[in-house]
Sequence to fold (286 residues):
Amino acid sequence: MGRVQGKVAFVTGAARGQGRSHAVRLAEEGADIIAVDICHDIESIGYPLAAPEDLDETARLVEKTGQGVFTAQADVREAAQLGAALDNGLAEFGRLDIVVAQAGVAGMQGQPQLQAWCDVWNTNLIGTINAIQVSLPHLSVGASIIATASTAALMDVAKKDNPGADPGGMAYLYSKRLIAEYVHVLAAELAPRGIRANVIHPTNTNTPMLQSEPMYRAFRPDLQQPTRADAEPVFGVQQAMKIPYVEPEDISNAVLWLASDESRYVTGMQLRVDAGGYLKWYDYHI
Fold:
């Protein structure tokens, strides 16, 4: 028996990167997957987003595990689109046990800058809230909600340099910070109903978001056209352990634990998968 055998998971941002990794990892442990992604670019975001073919590949990888998968192209900024995608997935699988609100964008170096600010807020924060709120009527005792924030949300930018010091970058940081606060409050409301809600804070993760020209420029503003080779040594500033980034699977293992009954009494958690990055920012406190 898998660790989430017989459960159904709704995963946003599932076409590639962390979202794909989470969908496949949950399927490997017995969950059927409702996978959604926007599957087209957002003009103000300076790197390509997933394509329809990427979502098809996620479906293929889930099917390879022997589990069922339903896919839909939906924009998390639009609650009606998400609700319709979820309803169609529920028509196929009949239940919902796990919500992974993963979809997000980084707006560093985005143009025009104020549109990047808006698109990041609407995707990261409003999109997370939309994914959770269309799911709430379908959840019952034992369900688990997992939202992805970021170690960036934990940074005290008044004290340290911040690679995202522009409107799109600051929207990323603060949208992730408010995801953490939203889920904290939500967890308190859902706990008496036997539904859990937790946040994962990844550090730099080896995905197309990180490995992109805008991110390279954010980390190496001293260079006009920095390459991956230029940026990767600087990525290490985010972690206490001597690595430039973690892999999507490192986050997926945490998602799996929070989705499984192994964490059945864990709720309201702010779980850092950050290679010690938080340790570089704050002294010990309870």
